[in-house]
Amino acid sequence: MAEAPTREYYFNPQRECARVHLPISAAVSAFSHNEFENLAVLRDISTSGAFFFCDSPLETGSDVCLQFILSVLGRDIHVTCSGTVVRVEEPRESGKGIAMRFLSCDLRELQ
User: Which of 19, 64, 78, 97 has its CA 20 to 30 A from that of 86?
Assistant: First the structure.
């Protein structure tokens, strides 16, 4: 049986905002050098940013757009977040680890 996440995982006093574990698929795009769009897998998200894995040429300081769909109470919400890459971790099986800070987010209900 899997262990329940600890409270420390969701809230760490050194962090600005609490994180929520959210392992879902997403799309990430960047427009700084060459326009591209890659698949990504979110690991966690907060009101100030997200951490995801992807195979892309992203570097610290890149401007990015992250898009995904959340199902909330039977409704699908399309989420689009724009921001800046603040950290890039070494590649793993699921791609590079990318931490981004949000500059803006838009939520729209899908019809």
Answer: 78
Q: Measure the CA–CA gap between 83 and 53, rounded to whole angstroms.
A: 16
pTM comes to 0.80
> In whole angstroms, what is the distance from residue 22 CA to residue 62 CA?
23
Burial of 72 (C-beta count, 10 Å sphere; 0-12/13-18/19+): exposed
Nearest to 50 by CA among 92, 8, 80, 94: 80
Q: What is the pLDDT of residues 53-97, one digit of tens each?
A: 998 888 999 999 999 999 989 999 999 999 999 999 988 777 899
Give the closest residue to 29 by CA, choosing from 82, 97, 101: 82
d(CA 101, CA 66): 11
Q: What is the pLDDT of residues 1-20, one digit of tens each?
A: 444 444 334 445 555 678 88
b/e code 89-106 from CB counts within 10 Å (16+ = b): eeeeeebbbbbbebeeee
